[in-house]
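Summary of Year 1 activities. Much of the first year was spent building the evaluation harness for sequence design. The harness presents a backbone, in tokenized form, and records the residue chosen at every position. We chose the following record to illustrate the format because it has been used consistently in internal testing since the harness was completed.
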């Protein structure tokens, strides 16, 4: 009986040793292929492009801010995720379009967006190079955003009637540079083409979509909004190996 127990203990120890070896090998492999990450934020301004107010494409008249996370998969591209928040508004009284000035509509809305996509640099940007580096970059992907669904009431005031979620395609161009060994500073302008024409209440949906009297402006063109601002991110993680992607 004691010999059987000893034999069982020996087998158990051998299995544990094998299991520990596998865990050690997997951990080493994961550490060897670990990538560099960046985390930080953006602060700047936002504006909307639609059927109410000014017709400027870039006019950051409201504060925008949020957080950014990047997974640097090579010196030329990164997977990027961000959450940004901003108020947008429009006022016909501030427009340089005579017809809008005479109409006199105005609105306010709030954008809360989550965006995931790919950032591509024009030149190699290795945050571990220990040198001062800079490059222009492009970013695109898919954005989901929450906002207020609006409508024009009987006295021509634009009000909220529901909460809504929709999607947009981000088209971002920027320029970034390293500051020290681990910090990056950038400036970017990013337009979002949305899949809705109702950021401003000009083309309400749901139960109000069949009421033509509520629609105004160009109902065949969707709304846009634009974020313009400064990004600051900090790198962390092991020095990456880019050879396997």
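For this record, the design step produced the sequence shown next.
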């Amino acid at each position: 009986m004691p010999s059987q127990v000893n034999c069982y203990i020996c087998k158990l120890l051998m299995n544990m040793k094998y299991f520990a070896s596998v865990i050690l090998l997997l951990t080493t492999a994961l550490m060897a292929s670990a990538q560099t990450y960046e985390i930080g934020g953006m602060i700047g301004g936002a504006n909307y492009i639609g059927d109410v107010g000014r017709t400027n494409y870039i006019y950051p008249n409201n504060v925008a801010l949020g957080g950014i996370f990047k997974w640097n998969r090579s010196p030329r591209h990164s997977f990027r995720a961000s959450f940004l928040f901003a108020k947008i508004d429009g006022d016909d009284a501030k427009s340089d379009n005579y017809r809008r000035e005479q109409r006199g509509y105005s609105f306010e809305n709030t954008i809360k967006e989550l965006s995931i996509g790919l950032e591509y640099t024009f030149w190699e940007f290795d945050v571990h190079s220990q040198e001062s580096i800079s490059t222009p970059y492009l970013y695109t992907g898919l954005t989901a955003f929450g906002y207020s669904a609006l409508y024009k009431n009987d006295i021509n005031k634009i009000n909220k009637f529901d909460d809504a979620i929709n999607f947009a395609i981000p088209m971002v161009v920027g320029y970034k540079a390293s500051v020290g060994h681990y910090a990056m500073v950038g400036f970017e302008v990013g337009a979002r083409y949305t899949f809705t024409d109702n950021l401003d209440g000009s083309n309400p949906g749901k139960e109000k979509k069949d009421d033509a009297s509520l629609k105004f402006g160009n109902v065949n063109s969707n709304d846009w909004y634009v974020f313009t601002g400064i990004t600051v991110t900090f790198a962390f993680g092991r020095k990456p190996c880019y050879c396997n992607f």
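The chain has one domain: 36-236. Quantitative recovery figures across the full test set are reported in Table 2.
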